[in-house]
């Protein structure tokens, strides 16, 4: 059962809000643009995270501790610039470790490769 107090509450809230002076079409358009921008930002963050995690997933170049730390850090980060730096650094480290591994096979200092399970 509604009382007069419940019926008056929405009117008080509406009176306290500032009036929107523009057209409803402009308001809806700006709201849609803001939602699209947020969707693009989330998509970029997810793509950067995926790239980092794919690069770190190789067990020959990154040990399980490094993989676990990277996964937790990447999941918490909301900054695209920081994720871009991480992606550059992770790919650089993977390339350096791959080059070192190739050189160790080429000069004969390494004759077998340990495979982690």
Could you walk me through the main structural features you see in this protein, from its secondary elements to its overall organization?
The protein is an all-alpha fold. It has a domain at 23-101. 74% of the residues lie in helices and 0% in strands. The protein has helices at residues 4-16, 24-56, 64-76, 80-106. The longest helix is centred in the middle third of the chain and has 33 residues, at 24-56. It starts with a helix and ends in an 11-residue tail after the last helix.
Mean pLDDT rating: 82
Summing up helix and strand content along with how strands pair, one would put the structural category as mainly alpha
What is the distance, rounded to the nearest whole angstrom, between the alpha carbons of the first and last residues?
A: 66 Å
Count of helix runs: 4
Secondary structure topology:
Elements lengths: L3 H13 L7 H33 L7 H13 L3 H27 L11
Helix pairs in contact: 2-3, 2-4
């Amino acid at each position: 059962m509604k009382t007069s107090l419940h019926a008056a509450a929405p009117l008080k809230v509406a009176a306290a809000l500032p009036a929107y002076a523009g057209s409803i079409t402009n308001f809806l358009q700006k709201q849609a643009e803001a939602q699209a921008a947020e969707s693009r930002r989330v998509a970029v963050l997810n793509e950067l995270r995926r790239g980092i995690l794919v690069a770190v997933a190789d067990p020959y170049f990154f040990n399980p501790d490094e993989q676990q730390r990277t996964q937790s850090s990447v999941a918490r980060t909301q900054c695209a610039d920081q994720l871009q730096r991480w992606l550059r650094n992770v790919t650089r480290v993977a390339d350096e470790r791959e080059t070192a591994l190739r050189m160790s096979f080429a000069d004969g200092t390494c004759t077998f490769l340990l495979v982690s399970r």
